[in-house]
Design goal:
alpha+beta, four-stranded antiparallel sheet, 11 strands, 59% helix
Length: 607
């Protein structure tokens, strides 16, 4: 659910305003309304610094600090620490560029081996000028060696490298297919020594960065928080209006209903003049969610798309059970689900507190996977219904087959879409009144009555004479629904406009509902593909294992571990992404989700 917000306007005498902001920061319950879009130059610079520090923290966190080889004096001053790290990064970048150039020179010189440019220079004194060539092996003509002063230096799989010793300033001969090479004016040994020196310097700088990563991240974060504190204060001042020729300061903000008592207690104690009001329809209060222990686990998933707008319902508690079931449906292997549950349970004792809710969600997703694995009788790619195990003989008929799982996927889709339409009705009534919800109510009646009549006709084996579908009762129900769809779909429009809008809505509803429903087939398809891949890897492990003691068991285990590990990763990824798509596209659309809410971020002290 969305916690109700109340708007406060604070009127503070200018000499007391600094103390007021300090107190407000300590309370940490007021989300300041931003009235000015353009931040000051100083604020922009602080934004830039915060982003820069966050990039450095992210960069350092990726480094391996398990074998730090040197001790570095970490500056206490955050700005100096940032400059030091950036300086090392810049030096590393330059060194890597130089190393790349030296390696190119090495590649150019290696075919020619070790030689001295000084010795080659002596040849010029006797009128000989060395020219370096390379040519594809098939194009090299050995007869050139008889005609010209040519010496082959080396060959590899593709090219022949040779030197032509030209006499004086004579014209160079035509050597068909040969390319002249301009070599660096260094020896092979010099280049190798330069590469070694560069690599040594790079290793030293990397060791320094590892030391920064081990002992400097906390200082960087503290420095970032200090800047953020300053930025928040400046933003509050920036969004303050001057009243009564600057003698009175006006600041406006939003406070959650749950924090009103402590805020008003402070305001009364300090004799701060304030005005309190409810959100207007044109206002955009920040969003603070409050859900139960289960639904709260799925809030990060909802935030990946968007927070709800203030005037609508929070859909997190409504999509959370479906998301969990859909994940289990897609993965659908009891063995895989067990791994998720056990791994998440183990790591909950190892990770920081902030990551534990994520692992709890993984436990729920794993539990749903175990459930659907039991329903389908799938365990690490094994079909339990096909195993000749005594204790399974009595329950084989209880496992659902592929046709039943296909129908179950469509049933899940039908239920979630209709459920979403009920939520849409609730949203429309909450935001605009029941008159704007009559069209959606009409469509719910059409869909549910038609599905009910069809189901009853099938159960009772109805004939053309006693069919409930399109019977008098059904037609009356459809007629009532049609009034909401075509006549009363908008209480403030002309009836003829409403009829036209109803016809357009009918086209969209018929095509959209069918398409949305068919989208849920992906639940069945992903579950089936996961099971098939598991079976394939089981077969490969059995068939590819050589009939040699120990080797057979070893190969069997390796194939199983690799195959099922790959399947868990790929199928697990798909089992997360596709339910998320069904939630954000099919469910959100039918629930009339608006979104676009801004997260509640109170003005508070960070350090």
């Amino acid at each position: 659910m969305i916690i109700p917000m109340h708007k406060y306007s604070f009127l503070v005498y200018h000499e007391n305003y600094s103390d007021f902001l300090s107190d407000l920061k300590e309370l940490g319950v007021v989300h300041i309304i931003e009235k000015k879009d353009e931040p000051t130059e100083k604020m922009q610079e602080e934004f830039r610094q915060i982003n820069e520090i966050e990039k450095l923290v992210k960069f350092l966190k990726k480094r391996d600090t398990s074998n730090v080889s040197i001790k570095v004096d970490i500056p206490d001053d955050g700005a100096t620490l940032v400059d030091d790290i950036k300086d090392v990064q810049n030096k590393l970048e330059q060194l890597h560029q130089s190393l790349g150039n030296r390696k190119k020179e090495l590649a150019q010189l290696e075919p020619w081996g070790q030689f001295s440019w000084d010795d080659l220079g002596k040849l010029k004194e006797v009128g000989l000028r060395p020219v370096f060539y390379y040519i594809p092996n098939r194009k090299y003509d050995p007869e050139w060696e008889k005609e010209f002063n040519i010496g082959v230096v080396s060959t590899d799989d593709r090219y022949t490298y040779f030197v032509l010793f030209a006499e004086g300033d004579t014209e160079m001969p035509e050597l068909q297919g040969a390319e002249e090479v301009r070599l660096p004016d260094k020896s092979l040994e010099e280049v190798k020594n330069e590469i070694s020196a560069l690599e040594k310097e790079i290793d030293e700088l990397n060791a320094k960065l590892d030391a920064y990563a081990k002992d400097g991240i906390d200082k960087l974060i503290k420095y970032r928080d200090t800047i953020q504190d300053t930025l928040n204060l400046e933003a509050a001042i920036h969004n303050t209006d001057d009243q009564v020729e600057g003698k009175v300061k006006l600041l406006e903000g939003w406070t959650p209903e749950t924090n009103i008592p402590e805020l008003e207690k402070y305001l009364e104690e300090k004799n701060i003049l304030y005005l309190k009001s409810e959100p207007h329809i044109d206002d955009k209060p920040p969003i603070k969610l409050k859900n139960g222990r289960f639904a709260k686990l799925f809030e990060p998933i909802g935030k990946l798309f968007s927070l709800p707008s203030y005037m609508e319902l929070d859909l997190t508690p409504f999509f959370a059970p479906f998301f969990m079931m859909f994940f289990g449906f897609c993965l659908g292997d009891a063995g895989y689900g067990l791994i998720f549950v056990l791994a998440a349970t183990y790591y909950k004792f190892k990770v920081n507190k902030e990551y534990k809710p994520l692992l709890t969600m993984v436990q729920w997703l794993g539990g749903a996977t175990v459930l659907f694995g039991i329903v389908t009788g799938t365990f690490f790619g094994l079909k339990l219904s096909e195993l000749q195990v005594p204790f399974l003989m009595n329950v084989k008929d209880m496992f659902l087959n592929d046709d039943q799982m296909f129908n179950l996927a469509l049933a899940f889709g039908f239920v979630q879409i209709i459920f979403g339409m009920f939520i849409k009705v609730a949203n429309q009534i909450k935001q605009h009144g029941i008159g704007f919800a009559l069209s959606t109510i009409g469509w719910i009646i059409v869909i549910l009555s038609t599905a009910t009549m069809a189901a009853l006709d099938k159960i009772h084996g109805a004939t053309d004479d006693n069919k409930l579908m399109f019977s008098t009762v059904h037609l009356i129900i459809l007629g009532i629904a049609a009034l909401g769809i075509f006549v009363f779909n908008h209480p403030k429009r002309n009836v003829f406009v409403n009829i036209g809008a109803g016809l357009w809505d009918t086209y969209n509803m018929v095509t959209g509902f069918a398409g949305d429903l068919l989208s849920y087939i992906r639940l069945f398809a992903l579950g089936l593909s996961s099971a098939i891949l598991g079976m394939v890897f089981n077969q490969l492990a059995t068939e590819l294992s050589p009939d040699v003691i120990i080797v057979k068991q070893l190969v069997f285990i390796i194939i199983l571990l690799f195959g099922h590990g790959l399947n868990i990763f790929m199928s697990g990824l798909g089992s997360f992404v596709h339910p998320m798509r069904l939630t954000f596209v099919e469910f959100y659309k039918n629930a009339g989700f608006i979104g676009g809410g801004r997260e509640y971020k109170p003005f508070r002290k960070i350090n």
